[in-house]
Amino acid sequence: MFDRLPSFVRVGLFCLLLGTCGAQIARNAMAAPVTEPVAKDVKKAEREAASRVGGPDVKAPLPAVGPGVVGGNGVVEPAGQETKVAAQVSAVVKAVLVHEGQQVKAGEVLVQLEDAFEAAALQAAEADLVAERANLARVLKGLRVEDKDAAQGEAQAAKARADLSSGVLARVEQLAKSGASTPDELERARRQAQSDQASLKVAEARARAAEAGSRSEDIGFARARVVGAEAKVAQAKAALERLSVRSPLEGEVLQVKVRAGELYSFQGTEPLVVMGDTRTLRVRMDVDERDIAKVALGASAYVTADAFGDTRFAGKVVEIGRRFGRKNVRTDDPVEKNDTKILEVVIELDSSKSLVPGQRVTSFVTAATQG
Description:
The chain is α+β, with helices and mostly antiparallel strands. It has helices at 7-31, 39-52, 116-141, 145-177, 183-212, 216-241; strands at residues 69-85, 91-96, 103-104, 109-113, 244-246, 251-256, 263-264, 273-288, 300-304, 313-320, 342-349, 360-366.
């Protein structure tokens, strides 16, 4: 039937059908646009898939993590973590006596701060102590024999003067009764006699004190001054000692933060020296909260580092944290999830001469068997 129609009619029907199909296709395209996934979305999906099977979010590809292994990022640290050594006072750095990588003993001086003023103060305090001890010895010993003899001689001379003036007064009084002496002469004789008697009492008191020795009050006072001088010496020594910054432990100098001539402030956040016991290294590993039930004390573990390729550093789990927190180890991935809750797990390495504290590693722990 279609063949019997005129040619111009058949052409018109074909054009009408073609226009109707094109309009329907356009409407479908506008209603549900189709987009192809971009590379960023593909990478994100791959990372999320890796995290769901226990692998950490890192830029470099991780070794295969099976159901019997828990993986996570970690950082190398000395046994007992790093120790940041600081001073108790602000001062100019006089000398740095250690260098990075040096092994030191506990109590060894690491940094010497400027101490000229404190050293002079100690010398002055020690001189005062010597003087006070000498004074105490003098008080305890009392006067010398020569001093005692001199005191007795002064007392005897005073008695002789008092006896003489008393005799003169008696004669002047007799003469005054007969009118042979004037009232003025009598008054002078009386005053001289009184003065000599007073001098006699003072001289006799000195002689008795010289014979008896020092009083208990004087001895106690002298001893108290010695104790005070000793306390000042101890205070000066402590002030001087604070300027010698010593190592609190036996270990390795990991980092020196100051140079000679710089002004150090104890109120700042930077330490003088960072130390650690590197004879045994540990890795502090971040374990996702979903995997913590798979980790047990004593479980075998190993870590890898980008710098050493596929080399595995074996160890075991020696500590499991008791409190969840935020991630401690950050990677360079700009879209890394940092709000994931983790639990810290500490791995003690068997041999780790190649690793250094602060180095980021990827950690793997043999998962505990689920009963």
